[in-house]
Design goal:
Largest sheet: 7 strands, mixed
Helix content: 25-40%
Structural class: alpha/beta
Number of strands: 16
Strand content: 15-25%
Radius of gyration: 21 Å
Number of helices: 17
Distance between the termini: 16 Å
CATH topology of the domain at 3-39 and 61-79 and 211-280 and 414-466: FAD/NAD(P)-binding domain
CATH class of the domain at 3-39 and 61-79 and 211-280 and 414-466: Alpha Beta
Shape: globular
CATH architecture of the domain at 3-39 and 61-79 and 211-280 and 414-466: 3-Layer(bba) Sandwich
CATH superfamily of the domain at 3-39 and 61-79 and 211-280 and 414-466: FAD/NAD(P)-binding domain
Length: about 475
């Protein structure tokens, strides 16, 4: 029997391992940490019985993943739960743009912009299953569904700010720009609408669900599927060189620079230079809170929304993101809030609830953004500070210690500008190939990039099986 080794037990490593096991290989996954999951983990960080997601929290692309959907992970305890409102973007005037799984319900709440929202995102959502098959993979290939993909590409190729200006109201503009800001990009550059269009369309198909009991349920289900296929996982095992990997096929769920260190002189010099020169994205600064009672949102609907985008108007969000990408910390950073307990009450304990938050900060930022994050919440939920019962902050350096793939606090696997949409991690028709026979990169530094969808691992495994 052919043997395969996968380095890293994040969702991409596990998805790749499952695909190789399905093909009949003997698969071993090696994980340096004592726990599987990478950023897709959960823990009682602050108080017993109150569950926080360590990094990834909401999973529109996980629920809509063309590969994960085929695995029957519900048999292994994975259950996606959805809040009444998927996302909200409040403004200082006390109003908010509200995002629902339903295109029609979202459009109805956007007033004068409802018809335009429906026209832009409705067709992409309607054809999402075929579009996702093409979009969640390498860009240097002929689409399997060219007509459907063309409609997605036309929208995605625009600057996010230009697509947002298709709307006339500040609520609709802010709602889309907040979604588009997830990938840490300069929102006025060509191609930056892509992430927003994908997340919006996926949300209109599957919502923005959470995994019951915590995001770790996703990786536990993948691990159980792998075990049923005969695969095994070894935790607490660090790989430092190619000599540690005795297998016919190797998948590396690592940052490209770590992959290059493992492969050393076996890797062709041109590919090695590309890996060493891998350009990471900005960082994240995460704050976990335990809140007693209501958060206190001013804008109607925010108290029922799973995700809250804080940053104000489209112009304010764009300015904050550009400041971060210029290497400076903004006074009013873009902040994402997670209220997972609304969909999954098991995360909370009585009237005490876990509030998940992170801000976009410069790569390698060494300051303390806790006050800036709290101030952004206070801006839209006056009195919030008085409801905090416990908190924990973790910056880019600590994030990298917890997960070495998060170099400089970059949780997305590298920059998400237009060049890196096409050349991720390098310009190649087979971006998973490392240049070393039988060894493939499968982390979020490969197409289609960040998100708990397992498609990087699946695509890399498919490339490995093709040889």
């Amino acid at each position: 029997m052919r043997r395969a080794v996968v380095v890293g037990a994040g969702p991409n490593g596990l998805a790749g391992a499952v695909r190789l096991a399905q093909a009949g290989l003997e698969v071993t996954v090696l994980e340096a940490a004592d726990e599987i999951g990478g950023g897709t983990r959960s823990a009682e960080l602050l108080e017993p019985g109150i569950v926080h997601d360590i990094c990834s929290a909401f999973h529109p692309l996980g629920a809509a993943s063309p590969y994960l959907r085929t695995l029957g992970l519900e048999q292994y305890g994975l259950r996606f739960l959805r809040p009444e409102i998927d996302a909200a973007h409040p403004l200082d005037d006390g109003t908010a743009g509200l995002f629902y799984q339903s295109v029609e319900k979202t459009a109805a709440g956007l007033g004068a912009d409802g018809r335009r929202w429906r026209a832009i995102f409705g067709p992409v959502a309607k054809r999402f299953s075929t579009i996702a098959d093409d979009a969640l993979g390498p860009m240097l290939r002929i689409p399997r569904h060219p007509l459907d993909f063309a409609g997605f590409a036309v929208r995605s190729g625009l600057p996010a700010t230009l697509l947002a200006r298709a709307f006339s109201t500040p609520q609709a503009r802010a709602l889309f720009i907040g979604i588009a800001a997830h990938p840490f990009v300069r929102l006025n550059r060509i191609g930056t609408a892509a992430g927003g269009v994908m997340l919006t369309a996926a949300g209109h198909v599957e919502g923005w669900p959470v995994a019951e009991g915590g995001s770790a349920a996703i990786t536990r289900a993948l691990a159980a599927k792998l075990a049923d296929l005969g695969g095994r996982i070894e935790t607490g095992t660090t790989v430092t060189s190619r000599a540690d990997l005795d297998a016919d096929i190797v998948l590396l769920d690592t940052d490209p620079t770590a992959a290059q260190r493992i492969l050393g002189t076996e890797q062709p010099s041109r590919t090695a230079r590309s890996y060493r020169g891998h350009r990471g994205g900005p960082g994240a600064f995460k704050v976990d809170y335990v809140v007693e009672g209501e958060v206190g949102w001013t804008a109607p609907g925010c108290d029922r929304a799973g995700v809250i985008h804080l940053g104000g108007t489209m112009e304010q969000v764009v300015r904050a993101e550009n400041t971060v990408l210029d290497g400076r910390m903004p006074d009013d950073p873009f902040v994402l809030i997670g209220q997972q307990w609304l969909a999954d009450p098991s995360r909370a304990k009585g009237d005490r609830k876990p509030l998940w938050a992170y801000a976009h900060v410069p790569r390698g930022y060494t300051g303390d953004a806790t006050e800036a994050v709290t101030a952004q919440i206070e801006r839209f939920a006056p009195g919030f500070s008085s409801r905090i019962r416990a908190s924990r902050s973790i910056g880019p350096a600590e994030l990298e210690v917890e997960n070495p793939n998060y170099v400089g606090g970059d949780i997305g696997g590298g920059r998400n500008d237009l060049w890196h949409l096409v050349a991720r991690p390098r310009l190649s028709p087979n971006p998973y190939a490392t240049g070393v026979d039988g060894v493939y990169l499968c982390s979020s530094s490969t197409p289609p990039g960040g998100g708990v969808h397992g498609m990087c691992g699946y695509r890399a495994a498919e490339a490995a099986l093709r040889g």
